[in-house]
Design brief:
alpha/beta, TIM Barrel, eight-stranded parallel barrel, 9 strands, 20% strand, globular
C-alpha cells in the first residue's frame, strides 16, 4: 500500500517555521502538533497559540496530540478555536469523560482522535472505538524523539486494521515514534495509514524542506525494499 506521511512539527526549526510549512504544504498530508505539559511527559512542546499562527499557513489538516495530565476540555476547546482539525487525546487520560469529549469535539465539526501508549491495550478503548476518527499508536514512550520502537506496537496496529475491516469501523491508523531506517520496513508492512515523520527521518535530512522531503522519500523506498 502507499503510506501517507504526517509531519511532527516539534522537530521543525521554529525560527523558520513559515518557510518550512510553505515547502511542506507541497507533500505532507497532515500536520502533527504535540502539546506537552512537562507533567504527562518530561518535555514541553508547542501550544494553542502556535496552532493559531500555523493555521493561516497550513494547507493540510492539523492533528493536535494532547499529552497533558488531568486532561480538561478547556485545552481542547482552545486548540479547536485556534484551528485544529483533529483533537487526539491520550486514552489513559480521558476514560472518565470520554463520551462527553466525543460529543464536544464532533459538535464543533472536528475529528476525534485517540492515542495509545505502547502498554495500552485496544481493549481499553473498546467501549468507544466506533466513534474514533484517528487512532494513533505511540511506537515509543511519549515525550521525546529518537527512542527505540517497541515491537509489540506493530502487532497492535495489525489487530486494529483487522478489527476495522471486520466491524466496519471508520478510523484511520497512525504510528508516532520509533520510525527509523532500521524499523521502517516493519512499520510499512503493518499497513498503517499514516506514518508520523519527525527529526530522525525528515528534518535531519536537510534545512531545505523540499530537499529534505526528496531525501526522505528515497530513504523510505530504500528501507521498504530491503529483503
Amino acid at each position: 500500500m502507499e503510506q501517507k506521511f504526517a509531519v511532527s512539527l516539534m522537530g521543525m526549526d521554529l525560527m523558520n517555521a513559515a518557510s518550512q510549512i510553505q515547502a511542506l504544504n507541497e507533500n505532507a498530508v497532515l500536520y502533527h502538533v504535540d502539546i506537552i505539559d512537562w507533567h504527562y511527559a518530561k518535555n514541553m512542546c508547542l501550544s494553542p497559540q502556535f496552532i493559531a499562527q500555523l493555521r493561516p499557513l497550513a494547507q493540510r489538516p492539523i492533528d493536535v496530540h494532547l499529552m497533558v495530565n488531568g486532561t480538561e476540555m478547556e485545552i481542547a476547546q482552545a486548540c479547536m478555536q485556534a484551528g485544529a482539525d483533529i483533537i487526539s487525546f491520550q486514552a489513559d487520560t480521558i476514560e472518565k469523560n470520554v463520551f462527553s469529549y466525543i460529543d464536544q469535539v464532533k459538535s464543533k465539526g472536528k475529528k476525534f482522535g485517540v492515542v495509545l501508549n505502547p502498554a495500552t491495550s485496544l481493549e481499553n478503548i473498546r467501549p468507544y472505538i466506533a466513534d474514533i476518527d484517528l487512532l494513533t499508536f505511540m511506537g515509543v514512550t511519549p515525550g521525546f524523539a529518537g527512542q527505540k520502537l517497541v515491537p509489540s506496537v506493530l502487532d497492535k496496529i495489525r489487530t486494529a486494521a483487522a478489527l476495522r475491516e471486520e466491524m466496519g469501523w471508520h478510523y484511520e491508523t497512525q504510528i508516532d515514534g520509533g520510525c527509523h531506517p532500521s524499523t521502517m520496513k516493519a512499520v510499512h508492512e503493518t499497513g498503517v495509514d499514516y506514518i508520523v515523520l519527525g527529526n530522525t527521518f525528515l528534518f535531519s535530512q536537510s534545512d531545505n524542506m523540499r530537499e529534505a522531503w526528496n531525501k526522505m522519500e528515497a530513504l523510505f523506498l530504500q528501507c521498504v525494499a530491503q529483503v
